[in-house]
Amino acid sequence: MPAMATRFLEARFAWARTALDSPARTTRSAVVVGRLLGLAFVVCFATGMYSHALQDPLPWMVFPTRPTWIYQWTQGLHVISGTAAIPLLLGKLWIVYPRLFSWPPLDSPLHGLERLSIAMLVSSSLVQVAIGFLNTLQWYPWEFSFRRVHLALAWVVIGSLAVHVAAKLPQIVAHWRRDRGETPRPTPRIVRPATPDANDPTDPVGADAPATATTRERDGA
């Protein structure tokens, strides 16, 4: 890439990062929202696999028949966690998407693989929660088999999520919870100019100071 084009893109990327900067877009915010989103995905995946296994069991699978409400309970968890994942996913994307404008976009093959896994995670997650929500509404504006696609996307989401967590594990560990020994930062104090003392003999505009043009005008002299 020509040097001029590189400098132009680098400047535009830096401008985008500055324009999108926000105190809420921090690594800790990403970790806090991310762990809730990860929990929702894991619960949704586990309960979804249970449902698929009940509907299409393998020959060696045996499932309990008591209590009778266990399927309703697991599928209620599936719907709740899947629906909760929608705002969590959107919130996570809002926090981290300015990082797409980091420069250079790819600085190593490992970084490229990491970005590829993120692209797979984001795209598959958006499709997964969208078609899952439409399924709760009994609306199917597509021609493919919902169950097959939903099952395949579940494995893509959970696999790319595992890769993403492994790549970001140092940051996750560092920001998982606030250090208990950490003291909050003191609020900066605003030092205001002291009010002149009327009895201060060194004050040129004190009570005993000779009247000047400014004080005469102020007093209406």
Automatic annotation (TrEMBL):
It comes from the Bacteria. Keywords: Membrane, Transmembrane, Transmembrane helix. InterPro entries: Di-haem_cyt_TM. One of its GO terms (cellular component) is membrane. Residues 193-204 have a biased composition (Low complexity). SUPFAM superfamilies: Transmembrane di-heme cytochromes. This is Cytochrome b561. The lineage of its organism: Bacteria, Bacillati, Actinomycetota, Actinomycetes, Micrococcales.
